[in-house]
Amino acid sequence: TTETQDRETTDGFHLVIDALKLNDIDTIFALPGIPITDFLRIAQADGMKVISFRHEQHAGNAAAAAGFITGKPGICFTVSAPGFLNGLTALANATTNCFPMILISGSSEREVVDLQQGDYEEMDQLAIAKPLCKAAFRVLHAEDIGVGIARAIRAAVSGRPGGVYLDLPAKVFAQSVAKDVAERSLIKVVDPAPKQIPAPEAIQRAVDLLKGAKKPLIILGKGAAYAQADAEIRSFIEKTGIPYLPMSMAKGLLPDNHPQAASAARSYVLAEADVVMLVGARLNWLLSHGKGKTWGAGDSKGWGKQQFIQIDISPTEADSNVAVAAPLVGDIGSAIGALNQAIGSGLGKVPAEWTGAIAERKDKNLTKMAETLAKNPPVMNFHSALNVVRETVKANPKAYLVNEGANALDFTRSIVDMYEPRRRLDVGTWGIMGIGMGFAVAAAAVTGEQVIAVEGDSAFGFSGMEVETICRYNLPICIVVMNNNGIYKGTDVNPRGDAMAVTQFVKNARYDMMMEAFGGVGVTAKNPEELDKALKEAIASRKPTLINALIDESAGTESGRITSLNPAAAKKKT
Ligand SMILES: Cc1ncc(Cn2c(C)c(CCOP(=O)(O)OP(=O)(O)O)sc2=O)c(N)n1
Ligand SMILES: [Mg+2]
């Protein structure tokens, strides 16, 4: 009878949930629809936290950010074909950022897809996902769900973390499986991200290089933040006294106002250092590929005089751009731990000429910044607005700071200091717009902490509809839209005058009303005092809030810090 049948069988829906729960995964970021709606209902009824979004890209971004924050793969569920494609951008971005996430999409039946018979939302999703992510698997039988989830978890977090795709054709969910078979089919993954211990000779080679350095520098990448080896890293930096530069999402590993922080003398230390230790930082475009003017080389393709030590989980990362004199392959916790072991109480004093020269430039630049921040121009600009955010984050160091835009990004990165690890979530290696609300929802949902999202008005537009998601779950997120009426600025001109210029938006748009539309708090801030008051109220109330900060539309530059990446516009034909 169905009674006995129920007692003895389970199904694919429940096997997916049991496999995730068995591996301590309790949160799913998703957008319902055929064939996953009932799965999401059952998961929610079964006690999983299911956060349902308005566009799959933001559900995927939330999964990626959850992965970066927790070290466990974030889970994103989408419908087939168009839903899957919407999730792909987040999956590819997670893979580029080395954030662990698993995109699980329902898909059409293999026999129909492979014969191209025109199924509902027919697409060969596995083949399309493969080149864009770290690993991709498909499960055809419910009793393989345990293996599928286990392999996806291990692939997402072991070695270099990244995005994994898991394809579940619709009928797998409904397949029934005898309970005892189901029990045996589930896998609790043992040690999904095994330590990779660096070889002693690699440690010695690095120590010898540092010992001989006159101008050593450490660069901390987001990999160093992700590693959650915070005490080991801090101890190595303080024991050696070596100046360090945190890349954007490594800010806060040590407090940005730490005496050895060299960010305020960034261009000087990159050009002048003689031995540079990269910790979870790749020598990609963000570090000018390790060559050219940034590194003190005469011509743009020339190599500087630096000798590089590179701590990376992947043995093939070394020499990707310039020679690496001391590759240190292993997980960052093990590598830094072994280095701390090898150096005992330290490496001897860093030459005072070097630390003195850095201090001089830091003081000069910080004094100049303080003067700029102290100005209170009649029309609020990035500096006077971000001075308020700077003080707010200093007073709330555990708050997560989500940040995207161009000027809104670059000025926030240099003006708003971070004091705790993994609290700054931004556009990452790709410099992608649209991560804002997905990252903010993940940070708030996974940690319960206050989130402050500093958004360019263009950047906000990519995920703005998720304001409804934020209100629906009543998340402690305060969005500050840096409203300068456009992409980069609001003053662009269309020479024909028959339409707004291509980078302009509606003047003084009322983004705050979007938040009010869904029951949140909307505020317009015309000056720093109003911005400060609204931020304080948002943090005190922990209510979803959007502050529409009106910023001087002529402030800032095209593309912010990366203006030089714009191809030179063809000279106008005279
Ligand atoms: C997905 C995507 N689309 C477009 C871009 C190009 N882009 C875009 C569209 C930016 C928005 C800049 O405008 P904003 O209003 O967000 O910031 P500011 O006005 O403060 O500079 S920054 C940037 O690199 C991108 N990086 N990512
Ligand atoms: Mg703008």
Tell me about this structure.
With 574 residues, the chain is of the alpha/beta class. It is built from 23 helices and 19 strands. Helix 23 (528-541) links the parallel strand 18 and strand 19. Helix 4 runs parallel beside helix 5 (82-97), helix 11 (200-211) crosses helix 15 and helix 17 (382-395) crosses helix 18. It is globular, with a radius of gyration of 25 Å. The structure holds ligand TZD and magnesium ion (MG). Magnesium ion binds next to helix 20.
Radius of gyration: 25 Å
Distinct bound molecules: ligand TZD, magnesium ion
Number of strands: 19
The major β-sheet equals: 6 strands, parallel
What is the SS-derived class? Answer: alpha/beta
Distance between the termini: 86 Å
Mean pLDDT: 96
Strand content: 15-25%
Percent range for helical residues? 40-55%
| Shape field | globular
Count of helices? 23
Low-pLDDT segments, ≥5 res: none
Please list the strands of the largest sheet in the order they lie side by side: 3-2-4-5-7-6
Q: What would a concise description of this structure say?
A:
With 574 residues, this protein is of the alpha/beta class.
Supply the key terms:
single chain, 574 residues, alpha/beta, six-stranded parallel sheet, 23 helices, 19 strands, 16% strand, globular, binds ligand TZD, binds magnesium ion
